[in-house]
Amino acid sequence: MSAVATPARQASGGINTKLVNRIVIYGLLALFALFYLMPLFVMLVTSFKTMDEIQNGNMLALPKAPTFDPWLKAWGETCVGLTCAGIKGYFWNSIKMVVPAVLISTMLGALNGYVLTKWRFRGATLVFGLMLFACFIPFQSVLLPMATILGSVGRFGVTLQNSVGTSFGLGNSTVNLVFVHVVYGIGFTTLFFRNYYEAFPTELIKAAQVDGASFFQIFRRIMLPNSMPIFVVTVIYQFTNIWNDFLFASAYAGTGDAMPMTVALNNVVNTSTGVVEYNVNMAAAMIAALPTLIVYVVAGRYFVRGLMAGAVKG
Amino acid sequence: MSTVATSQIKLTPERSRTSVRSRLQDALPKIVLAPSFAITIVFVYGFILWTIYLSFTNSKTFPSYVITGSRAYQRLWGWTFDTDPPSSWYTSITNMGIFGFLYILICLALGLFLAILLDQKIRGEGVLRPIYLYPMALSFIVTGVAWKWFLDPGLGLEQTLHQWGWTSFHFDWIKNKDFVIYTVVIAGVWQASGFIMAMFLAGLRGIDGEIMKAAQIDGATTFQLYRRIVIPLLRPIFLSAFIVLAHLAIKSYDLVVALTSGGPGGSAWLPSNFMYEYTFKRNEMAVGSASAVIMLMTIVAIIVPYLYSELREKPR
Q1: Does residue A39 sit in helix, strand or coil?
Q2: CATH of B84-313, one of 3.30.1330.40, 1.10.357.10, 1.20.120.450, 1.10.3720.10
Q3: C-beta atoms of A42 and B114 within 8 A
Q4: Membrane-spanning residues where (chain B) (predicted)?
């Protein structure tokens, strides 16, 4: 694409117009960069200040005496509801929920995408369409039935616990959330893999079939080794979505020890008892944001590709 | 053996005589897909029907399965601003209108504007682009916490400007029931506009340079070039971006909770917040379900035509 100054303009305005144009463009870009960076900057500096400095100082000023205490307090001591053991436990809850949910939904998506493109059958487009639409529903429309079912499963788990001695994880909030995220995540993962495998040469599959390779052999030996980029994209997309989820988390694990990070953070910030420790709140928010931010910094390119693939089909 | 991909499975006489094992092999792809499909049917479509059913009952704290007609819908739409206090549902859908309109419009305008600026052979594009886009990686809760702090009259922007000498500056939208929804717009735009920028930038990069050159040779000004040629060429991106934003707007829930805790007297509620509160906190399950059904219908009206055309376009 061309630069702003057109030949016609250049003829009349010359070098000066061009220079002014450049200054205006860079100025605007810098201004917007500030707009996007400001909240993160404020959050970061506040998390290193003492309460005294927050109340008497300027929001934008750098900490005069940087302290790491708010971070330590947020991690290990701050109160979430009535328990005051920091957010570390909830951070691990999120990890325990995210890892299995991402792995299972990604694997299922890969298999589904493989079937939907390379083993097409009558009605495959309808099946895909129905799964795709599921990505877009407002989850409010399934929230209550799922709560009812999870409630019954939980009661069954208690019965099992009493009679057999183990509930097999039934009724465990983390297990519930993994299940919920897999169920409502496979639409997206299937979409990603389907679109990726669509472009994968079918001749290779045919050749392998002639050589007698089975369904799973083809998947393992031919598809998987060539799917690295889409695996990265899908894992990042699912990781970000599930880590950041709040609706399911608050509906199915909104209280108690199994709360994921987002719910715990919201509770920390909205605890109204005692003095509000803004620096601790900001440190907690930073801790909640770090995993996805790190993924973004390390693999931003793949993150953007995932968003795009989720937004624009094909 | 069946052939891969395009050809449909035909049952030939030899085929029916093949062993169970090979028939199993042929059915394997469907068996692999079946659990995911079954899960979708039950937990998405089945649950939607269940929610619709509940919205026609008189469920309160616990689900009831006695159909009582459209009472919940009548209650939902029967309340207006004239009732005292004004109905939460009317507040929610008015907020949805304000938020949806401004959020989509500003994100599209800002996204396009930034994309055009970034497309002027900018040095440091590699640094600026990630800065515009990173909020998309954050959770709405984190965004809400950050902006709550930033917009707090006693601690944030207002206080800072006072310290800098602009003592008459007044900005308390986040505590004002008539303006709190606009703070949700600000935070929402902050989070999503960078992503819309990335979509437009990808679109701009896809435009054939020859068209641009030809227009320039014909003496088109930069403004004309963008208005007459570039923006019309970006129409598919506008559509995709609109779909993404509309869908994000209708689903918005977390941001209102974290940023405003619902606002003074629930004045920042969106339909999603209404649904959650009525279903889980106010023991009005039927009314909550009815609101969920209305949300779903809105999404269906936007998404289904879009998906239909997308899937139809490339028949294979």
Answers
A1: helix
A2: 1.10.3720.10
A3: no
A4: 31-53, 96-119, 131-150, 179-204, 225-250, 285-308
Looking at the DSSP assignment, which residues form a beta bridge with residue A83? A80
A146 touches B60 (CB < 8 A):
no
For B194, the closest chain A residue by CA position comes to A36
Residue carrying structure tokens 């619709």: B52
Chain A residue numbers touching B156 (CB-CB < 8 A):
42, 59
Domain spans in chain B, listed from the N-terminal domain onward: 13-55, 84-313
Cβ of A112 within 8 Å of Cβ of B32? The answer is yes
Summarised one tens digit per residue, pLDDT across range B50-66 is 999 999 988 877 777 87
Spans of all domains in chain A: 70-311
Closest residue by Cα to residue A141 from B167, B124, B46, B209? B46
Using an 8 Å CB-CB cutoff, list chain B residues near A131: 36-37, 40
Task: Give the C-alpha distances (Å, rounded to integers) separating A253 from A88, A100, A140, A177, B48.
Answer: 16, 17, 16, 8, 22
How far apart are the CA of A160 and the nearest CA of chain B, in angstroms? 24
Q: Structure tokens of A116?
A: 């939907």
The two structure tokens encoding residue B266: 């629930």
Q: What are phi and psi of A255, to 5 degrees?
A: -130, 165
pLDDT of residue A311: 62
Residue B18 touches chain A, beta carbons under 8 Å: no
The CATH homologous superfamily to which domain A70-311 belongs is: MetI-like (1.10.3720.10)
Residue A134: pLDDT band by 50, 70, 90 thresholds? Answer: confident
Locate the chain B residue with the closest alpha carbon to A106. B36
Does pLDDT of B167 surpass 70?
yes
Query: Least CA distance to A295: which residue of chain B?
Result: B137
3-class secondary structure, A235: helix
- ipTM computed for the complex: 0.86
List Cβ neighbours of A190 (8 Å cut-off, separation of 6 or more): A108, A109, A112, A113, A116, A128, A131, A132, B36
Minimum distance, in Å, between the CA of residue A165 and any CA atom of chain B: 29
Residue of B nearest to A40 (CA): B146
Q: What is the mean pLDDT of residues A55-83?
A: 83
Answer with the residue of higher pLDDT: A232 or A277: A232
CA A106 to chain B, closest CA, distance in angstroms equals 12
